[in-house]
Specification:
Radius of gyration: 19 Å
Order of helices and strands: EHEEHEHEHEHHEEEHEEHEHEHE
Distance between the termini: 51 Å
Number of strands: 14
Number of helices: 10
Helix content: 25-40%
Length: 302
């Protein structure tokens, strides 16, 4: 089987299931595991990556209202690679090339590939995505084993965190403007021993006002900018997030942590279990004294 993965998450799933030889192409964002970087890349972004978050937000809105997509697909290369299956999604036009575009292009490819929509909205949906890829590729046993091992890790965190007093948590998928955590993020917070009252459980992330965050008075703020490394997330927090928070004076003193949202929380794949463990170590550091390099997690108390 020849697989085209148009999502970093499905690329990770395929590699985790031992399908590296079946992957014929990936996106420009597929960077894990490192072997994925060697695969042909059939997409590129229409948005520059080295501009401030506020400008990215403006360009995203402008591009979506005009072209309807943020990405370009190399149809000539895709035709030469002749995939049998294309893994994509229609949940979020910001995350990948639009589903309608992929479907239209696939119908005109000589290989007539099957287009498979992988769009989890919940933690259970993420585990089901692994099983779905396993069924498509004929490696059901491997998929079931992987999903079970991830579930075991997640349930271990849940069991240890459950007796603790929940902490008030705000997860920010973007800083300027601030976007709350959506889809599976509030669920992960609950498992890790927190309450994300501003989050959108199993629904898309949406903008929130800084005064809402201040009024909520969180114990913990987790900056997990979608598509950003810790370094980029930290720069956004220090330049745009912290100044707004400091307007509250002494009324609000949360523990602030910046995480690698691009590698973990934004990707509904095998590293979702590590995302839960990361959250637990931030929310209850005494109970979960995991150690992470600064490239994954950096505490930035205001």
């Amino acid at each position: 089987m020849r697989i085209c993965s148009l999502l970093p998450s499905t690329t990770e799933i395929c590699f985790a299931l031992g399908l590296s030889d079946e992957i014929v192409c990936v996106t420009h964002e597929c960077d894990y595991p490192s072997e994925a970087l060697k695969k042909p890349r059939v997409t590129r972004s229409a948005i520059p990556s080295d501009i401030p978050g506020a400008e990215i937000d403006r360009l995203v809105r402008s591009q979506l209202s005009g072209a309807g997509t943020l990405y370009h697909l190399d149809t000539e290369l895709l035709a030469r690679l002749a995939p049998d299956v294309i893994l994509t999604q229609e949940l979020c036009t910001v995350c990948s090339i639009s589903y309608e575009t992929v479907l239209r292009i696939a119908q005109n490819l000589p290989s007539l590939p099957q287009v498979v929509n992988i769009e989890p909205r919940s933690l259970e949906g993420i585990l089901e995505s692994i099983l779905a890829v396993g069924r498509i590729a004929g490696v059901v046993g491997k998929a079931e084993s992987l999903a079970a091992s991830l579930r075991d890790r997640i349930e271990r965190v849940r069991a240890l965190a459950a007796p603790q007093e929940p902490k008030r948590v705000v997860c920010l998928e973007w800083v300027d403007p601030p976007f709350c955590g959506g889809h599976w993020i509030p669920e992960l917070v609950t498992i890790a021993g927190g309450i994300d009252a501003l989050g959108r459980l199993h629904e898309p992330s949406k903008p929130v006002a800084w005064n809402q965050i201040i009024e909520y008075n969180p114990d913990v703020i987790v900056v997990m900018c979608c598509g950003f490394t810790v370094e980029r997330g930290m720069a956004e927090w220090l330049s745009r997030g912290r100044p707004f928070l400091q307007q509250s004076g002494a009324r609000i003193r949360p523990r602030v942590a910046v995480v690698d949202g691009s590698s973990f929380f934004s990707r509904p794949g095998p590293r979702i279990a590590e995302s839960v463990e990361l959250l637990a170590s931030i929310i209850h550091p005494d109970l979960f004294p995991y150690e992470y390099p600064e490239s994954v997690l950096h505490v930035a108390d205001q």
